[in-house]
Design goal:
Blueprint: E1 5-9, E2 12-14, E3 22-23, E4 25-29, E5 32-37, H1 39-44, E6 50-53, E7 58-61, E8 63-68, H2 70-79, E9 81-82, H3 91-102, E10 111-114, H4 131-135, E11 143-146, E12 151-154, H5 156-161, E13 175-178, E14 185-190, H6 203-218, E15 222-227, H7 232-243, E16 250-253, H8 263-268, H9 270-276, E17 283-285, E18 287-291, H10 321-333, E19 337-341, H11 345-356, E20 369-371, H12 380-389, E21 392-394, H13 399-402, H14 404-411, H15 413-416, H16 422-427, H17 448-457, H18 474-480, H19 483-488, E22 506-509, E23 526-531, E24 534-538
Parallel strand pairs: 1-6, 2-7, 8-15, 9-10, 10-11, 15-16, 16-17, 18-19, 19-20, 20-21
Antiparallel strand pairs: 1-4, 2-3, 4-5, 7-22, 11-12, 12-14, 13-14, 22-23, 23-24
Length: about 550
Amino acid sequence: MPTETVCFVGGRVRTMDRAGTVAEAFRTEDGRIVAIGTTEEILAGAGDARVVDLAGAVVIPGLVDCHSHLELLAYSWELAVDCRSSRVSSIEEMVGVLAERAGTLPAGEWVLGQGQHYQNLKLAEGRYPDRHDLDRVSTTHPVLYRASYHLNVFNSLALELLGVDDDTPDAPGGRIERDPATGVATGRTYDMFEPLGGPQPPVEELAAAIKRVQDRYLAVGVTTLGDIPLHRSGLEAIAAVAADGDLVLRAALYPKLKAVVSAEDVRAGRTRERIDALDPDHLAMVGFKVFLDGGLTAGAAALHEDYPGQPGYRGELAFTDREVAALVATADDAGLQIAMHAIGDRALDQALDGALALPVERHGVARHRIEHAGNMFMTDERIKRLAAAGVVPVPQPAFIMTTAAGYVAHLGTDRIGTVMPFRTLIDHGLPVPGNSDAIGITEDQHHPFPAMQAAVTRRTNDGDVLAAQEAVTVEEALRMYTEWAAFSIGWEDRIGSLEVGKFADFAVLSGDPLETEPTELAALTVTQTWIGGTLVFERS
């Protein structure tokens, strides 16, 4: 940590405190803010401090992405072949680019491909690839195509290596797709990557890739993540980066239950103690993630009614109601948050039941979260239950651009209700924290400003407007990625606004978001990013 005193003067500092204070200058010591005011006031007490002239630039608090996946971005951006629809328009083209990669690898090494949500609607064939398509990539390399974390497709060699045969059972909450006529696996799997033991890159390789992903976050003004390691290698890679002193971002971790931490581990505090000791100012385990159902993009979310065209199928719940209530209590007793993935309405109700099962005096104390609550299925009754339980809903503003239209096309508004009802949630007093859930399906899903623009304009990447009445103001959009996101990870006492005592984490912008046309928010650029009073990114 820096030990010098620095005065940042001559700027337009949007502190994002509760009063919306706009200052000219602030002073930092040992990486924290010690004074805020006019340039004259700050310089008067400067002594021999170093002075940084902001030259009229706009400063905002460091942005917070409260639901991120460093390891999945490392996979998709750094390790996998780009198979997204911005590059391929058909399965034939996908096979070609994957085969090109296979030609560069020794036989037996995995060929990894990254696609995107609802890509079946964009490919010329109108479907996802299957094992036979991927067999044409290679019969000497195991091949994996990922459309989302939930939907993975393997070729025949990969299925053989993973031990998938006609008798392989589905895991709780997961499904191996089989040909209805023959019962043979098609290669498409839904929420089965972990149960099948899908391929994990070496920790050293993943750690190096995470460092490069970190640079991309810093370049868009993000200084803190609520990061969710989904595999043991992901947690160990982040820990290795921190142990080497190379973790520049701050990261509040929510490792996945069972795959990364166990309930017993949570109760004993083993992983938490080890992680929290590595770099306390930058890394801490604040909770754990649990998947109550799968993804709607994979047709595995747990619904109250049948999936269209699939009579009798309503997705799967991974836990019983009693088990969910016990997991919430385990987190609460440990002083940790539980982050419950609940996409379908049946899973959402189960999560709410589990949170409300806590003693009333514990409601809202640990600040438990429901990931994806607020994307859809938000009835008046569920919103009231969210508020009563003191649970933080964590919808994904970036999904307005990429995924929300797929929700509507898949189930229809009669079932899902108003898509992304952010205005309604805020009007009910619920914070809507900014986050990306970025796994690499687009180049800019991790970028807060396009997501802020979408929250304000409600416009998709295809130009359609979704539920315009649910638009937020620009100031609210900025609070989503500052104050409210900091609140969602329990760190509002250290980040989320520029106030005395908090970390000097901030971004210098090309313009003022609150004086920018909403349709131009995505065009704002970050010229500098500072963490703990140290310059960590500067645009050349």
